Amino acid sequence: MEKDFMTTNFKNLNYIEQENLGILTIDREKKLNALDVEVLMELRDFLEELMTKKLSIKGLIFTGAGSKAFIAGADIASMSNMEEKDGEQFASLGQQVTLLFEALPIPVIACVNGYALGGGCEMALACDFIYASENALFGLPEVGLGLIPGFGGTQRLENVVGRNFAREMIYTGRSINAHEARERGLVNQVFSDKEALIEAGKKCLKEIMQKSPHAIKVAKKVMNRGNDLTVEEGLSIERQKFGSIFSSYDMKEGTKAFVEKRKPEFKGN
């Protein structure tokens, strides 16, 4: 059973819910799903609305329309006449979107088909992990335009692929294919085509949905916070959250079900 949700409010987004998961698509195929101010504002508003409503979904797939691009990057034509203040505001808007993806209390899989360059690569990096099709291409080519990554690429890429390779990618602007991206840890799995890619994303989320939504929410929050802390500081937060989760229904139900050798019935709290 599919249902449309909030699609009438947005010109460049398509969203459906099915089987307790959501599929969010940037629907700007003729522009290779490039990000301009309008698209970023719509993404921000959509994610804020999703955050404020009581979530009926337990996972989200984020993808782009068509077969050529996930997100080909920022819309260069719209950027070419920007001044310093405009550029900073544009970066701020893009960063707001990536932070909202990270803040969602559910797992988010970027399903990347085709180009994921510049802002597209940065949006994928803000998701929990990335699945890709054979034709996926990842890169941060901004220096070739006299720019730098502005939606978090200078901060997130290093955490995923390591300091040296991240700097090589950013300084050279070189793109990598799906298989090299997997070897570098940027991509989790590679699939033959977009159909297989989306189906794999759904299958993974359905597997995750069998686990405690509350525990997943807490784990995501702890991991995100730990990115900016020392190991000792991160361990302290992990210890605190590990303790607090003992008061949750899901923890009591999960451990009781294990002892009773039955399937747990989680409630997400």
Sequence-ordered SSE layout with sheet pairings:
Elements: E1 2-4, E2 13-18, E3 21-26, H1 37-52, E4 60-64, E5 69-71, H2 76-79, H3 84-103, E6 108-112, E7 115-117, H4 119-125, E8 129-133, E9 137-139, H5 153-161, H6 163-172, E10 176-177, H7 178-183, E11 189-191, H8 194-208, H9 213-226, H10 231-244, H11 249-259
Parallel strand pairs: 3-4, 4-6, 5-7, 6-8, 7-9, 8-11
Antiparallel strand pairs: 1-2, 2-3, 9-10
Helix pairs in contact: 1-3, 3-4, 4-5, 5-6, 9-10
Count of helical stretches: 11
Shape: globular
| Number of E strands | 11
Oligomer: single chain
Return the CATH topology of the largest domain. Answer: 2-enoyl-CoA Hydratase, Chain A, domain 1
> Unreliable runs, pLDDT <50, ≥5 residues?
none
Any idea what the CATH architecture of the largest domain is?
Alpha-Beta Complex
**Could you name the CATH homologous superfamily of the largest domain?**
2-enoyl-CoA Hydratase, Chain A, domain 1
Number of domains: 2
Order of helices and strands: EEEHEEHHEEHEEHHEHEHHHH
Rg, nearest Å: 19 Å
Sequence of strands across the biggest β-sheet: 1-2-3-4-6-8-11
DSSP strand content: 15-25%
Kindly report the average pLDDT value.
92
Distance between the termini: 26 Å
CATH hierarchy, class of the largest domain: Alpha Beta
Helix content: 40-55%
* Largest β sheet strand count, sense and barrel closure: 7 strands, mixed
Instruction: Indicate the structural class.
Output: alpha/beta
